[in-house]
Amino acid sequence: MSAKGLRLLLAPLLVLASPALAAPEFTGGPEFASDTGHVLLSWESDEPVRLIIADNAEFSGAKPLYEGSQTSFFVSGLSNGEYYLRLDGVQGESSQPAKLNVVHQSLTQAIWLTIIGLIITVGIIATIARGARDD
């Protein structure tokens, strides 16, 4: 029997012997939250994946964020809102959709924290200056 004939004979056995790939899956749960507009997503997959994001659960108008073999991706620059993420494997398997809720900290809180930081900084500088004068 020729090598070509042997390959044709064994090809169906190789297909049957190859393990089925599991669907990609997000680690850390199906829901994520961010108060800064960025998040590190991680997942488990037996194959390269394509990470897509949409602003609706039907994934209409979805945009690809990443495609490759890595198992994590840092998403940043998101404004307030709900986002839906999905991993699509190259063999056609898809993960369960994950939901990302982004709610930035309020501007009032940021201003108050800045003022408190400024007061502490001025106090430290004044203490150092007074201590240096006494020497």
Question: Which secondary structure elements does this structure contain, and how are they paired or packed?
Answer:
Layout: H1 3-17, E1 25-27, E2 31-34, E3 39-44, E4 49-54, E5 63-68, E6 72-75, E7 81-89, E8 98-102, H2 107-134
Strand arrangement, major sheet: 2-8-7-4-5
Can you give the helix content as a percent range? 25-40%
Rounded radius of gyration (Å): 26 Å
Do you know the CATH topology of the largest domain?
Immunoglobulin-like
Description:
It is a single chain. With 135 residues, the protein is α+β, with helices and mostly antiparallel strands. It has two domains: 21-104, Immunoglobulin-like (Sandwich), CATH 2.60.40.10; 106-135. The chain is built from two helices and eight strands. The chain has a five-stranded mixed sheet with strand order 2-8-7-4-5, with no helix packed on it. Strands 1-3-6 form a three-stranded antiparallel sheet, with no helix packed on it. Strand 4 (49-54) and strand 5 form a beta hairpin. The longest helix is centred in the C-terminal third of the chain and has 28 residues, at 107-134. The radius of gyration is 26 Å and the shape is elongated.
Report a brief summary of the structure:
With 135 residues, this protein is an alpha+beta fold.
